[in-house]
Amino acid sequence: MADKKDIDVINQYTGENWYYTDIVKDHFFHPRNLLMEKPKDENEFDARGMVGSPACGDMMEMWMKVDKTNEKVAELKWKTFGCASAIAATSIYSVMLTENGGMTLDEAMKVRPQDVMMRLGGLPNRKIHCSVLADKAFQKTANDYFRKTGQNSRIVIEGARVVDSRLNITDKDIEEAVLEGAQTLEEVQKKLKVGVGSTPELITEIEQLIRFYADKYYG
Question: Where in the numbering of this chain does the NIF system FeS cluster assembly NifU N-terminal domain appear (predicted)?
Fold first, then answer.
């Protein structure tokens, strides 16, 4: 167990100890590819994407330049209103997509939050959802590039599907619950009340979604 002096953050509500790796600290204090101000010329980059809202918490805006000869990510810049984990995760994410000549767009869209976590050396469980912000912002940015270049068939659309019609709970609500740390049916139901008193078939579907998202984000 780490010495108390090594603890980086103590959650004031739960008392949980959070430890950040040296890589996380480096990318938080020295973020790579960060834009302090938005580009003045909208044509400076080939695509732009944004997720979240400053009114409700984390928000990220991303800009990308693409090498047209091989469709590799030449530059990936970003700006965020987010916590230390979100900043560090996005910083390393931007490095991963642009290092060694850059990834192709197809390769970049296959980078998973688990891959980012491995490069960071891990994040506190309660902060794993922060590694998803860059992923979602990049998908929006890639979609913007595909629209601008007439590649509409490559645009990825994520639509919410209602799982529990009584409470109007969607698969995206369950995804968010898992990202916030819920790993079991009981933990998800504590957050959402989804499936309480429902049919065995619905419970099975909810459990399958929980396993899917847990594997997707926690690997």
Answer: 20-150
pLDDT (tens digit per residue) in 155-168:
887 778 889 988 88
Which residues make beta-bridge pairs with 64? 47, 76
Asked if the 4-154 domain carries CATH number 3.30.70.1450, the reply is: no
Its sign, for the CA torsion 100, 105, 111, 113, is positive
Active site residue 83: no
Q: What is the pTM of this model?
A: 0.73
Active site residue 130: yes
Single out the catalytic residue among 2, 36, 56, 157: 56
Give the CA distances from residue 181 to residues 16, 130, 131, 139, in Å, rounded to whole numbers and listed in that order: 13, 12, 13, 23
Question: Which listed residue (86, 96, 130, 142) is catalytic?
Answer: 130
Q: What is residue 7's DSSP assignment?
A: -
Rounded Cα distance between 182 and 76, Å, is 32
Cα–Cα distances (Å) from 126 to 9, 48, 85, in that order, read 12, 29, 10
What phi, psi does 126 have (nearest 5°)?
-70, -5
The residues spanned by each domain of the chain are 4-154, 162-218
